[in-house]
Write a structure and sequence with these properties.
By secondary structure, the protein is mainly β. The protein has one helix and 33 strands. The strands form nine sheets. The chain has a five-stranded mixed sheet, with no helix packed on it. Strands 3-4-5-6 form a four-stranded antiparallel sheet, with no helix packed on it. A hairpin with a 2-residue loop joins strand 14 and strand 15. The chain is globular and about 70 Å long.
């Protein structure tokens, strides 16, 4: 749906029951929003009526859509330059080989397309968009040795040339695209998402946002954001308990403090499938812990992802400035590679000092690569 400045709905997708978008690409000058899901559709930005549909996906570069087919039965897939308003073909680029689940990175000013490689001896393939002209990026020879590349904006990239060594995260370099100059280097950090607004770095420490223009590190977040604007000072985070949290930048001193907690009850919850943090107010679908509800109590479950029957909450920390609550969890070794039949859960009680709204996330202790369910944020409100 499209909202006005007051939050009112001014246009809505007419066939929402038939098509659920998972990703949006905006072409404001062309008046088109490209919605990607099980199919890809071009929607009129004003009315949200469907203009065209395809099984290709779209990489936006200025006012052009570079369309590719990642789910081909025999990769590499097709790669074309198309008009986002009509999806009409402007230029076919069959020499750019795009395989499954490999979104290309386009540097049109440098006549360059970058695609993750299927080869065993290098990580990326580099193609000239115009095969009759050379790639003009001045530091292309160094870039060919990269193991991780993320385009942050038209003039910034974050690149790592290291592999995994002794179990630590590789270092990453914020790089000026036009010259190859290293603007900043981040030890034990690897980008997991890069957008024009910011990139999301993960490592042994808590995951953080990176402002590509001034190389500063922003807030630590428990999950990947839906939207980031350093210019507006807004971050939108999806919530595992429904909806989204909108974070707004304010002046303050961030400081993580250990919080005392009391373990109230431990049990198994067959109806809980995924990681969950919620108020223990009697509404959880878990009869084994129904009697443990009470004020300032929360229910924590790691879900059925790992076949374990218990976990230990080793610490709870709070950052009052950012309203972040972090629950550190030590997981038992799984009994099998299969999912569990029931989810282990605990109820803990927190002190009265933790009043109001908090954004909550789980962190493994010790800091191993996060299980899938730990990439989830929750919001709780101690009224």
């Amino acid at each position: 749906m499209r909202l006005d400045a007051a939050g009112g709905v001014v246009a809505q997708q007419s066939d929402a029951s038939e098509f659920t978008p998972t990703h949006l690409v905006l072409f404001e000058d062309s008046g088109v929003v490209v919605a990607e899901g099980s199919w890809t559709r071009g929607l009129d930005l004003r009315t949200l009526e469907t203009l065209w549909k395809t099984d290709s996906e779209c990489v936006a570069v200025a006012d052009l859509c570079y369309a590719y087919q990642p789910f081909t039965t025999s990769p590499p897939g097709t790669f074309d330059e198309r008009d986002p308003r009509t999806f009409s073909l402007l230029r076919s680029l069959p020499h750019v080989k795009v395989g499954q689940l490999m979104a290309p990175m386009i540097l049109r000013d440098w006549n360059l397309a970058i695609v993750r490689s299927n080869s065993s001896d290098h990580w990326f393939d580099f193609f000239a968009l115009d095969p009759g002209a050379p790639i003009t990026l001045p530091w292309i020879d160094r870039l060919r040795g990269a193991r991780s590349i993320g385009l942050l904006s038209g003039d910034r990239a974050i690149v790592s040339y290291e592999g995994w060594q002794n179990g630590r995260f590789p270092a990453s370099e914020l790089t000026d695209i036009s010259t190859g100059r290293v603007i900043a280097r981040y030890e034990d950090r690897l980008p997991v998402v890069a957008t024009a607004a910011a990139t999301f770095l993960t490592g042994a420490a808590v995951t953080q946002l990176l402002d590509p223009q001034n190389s500063s590190l922003g807030p630590g977040l428990p999950t990947l954001p839906l939207y980031v604007s350093f210019e507006k000072g807004i971050v939108v985070v999806p919530l595992g308990n429904g909806g989204a949290a909108v974070l707004q930048r304010e002046a303050g001193q961030s400081s993580e403090q250990t919080v005392a907690f009391t373990s109230i009850a431990v049990g198994a919850c067959p109806a809980i499938d995924f990681t969950r943090v919620q108020l223990a107010d009697g509404t959880a679908d878990c009869p084994a812990l129904a009697a443990a509800h009470g004020a300032r109590r929360i229910l924590v479950s790691t879900g059925k992802e790992r076949d374990i029957d218990r976990f230990e909450i080793t610490a709870v920390t709070a950052d009052a400035a950012s309203r972040r609550l972090t629950i550190r969890v030590r997981l038992d070794e799984p009994r099998s590679p299969s999912a569990a039949q029931t989810a282990p859960a605990q109820v803990i009680e927190l002190p009265e000092s933790l009043a109001g709204r908090w954004l909550v996330g789980l962190e493994p202790d010790p800091q191993i690569p996060r299980p899938f369910g730990f990439w989830t944020a929750f919001a709780i409100d101690f009224r």
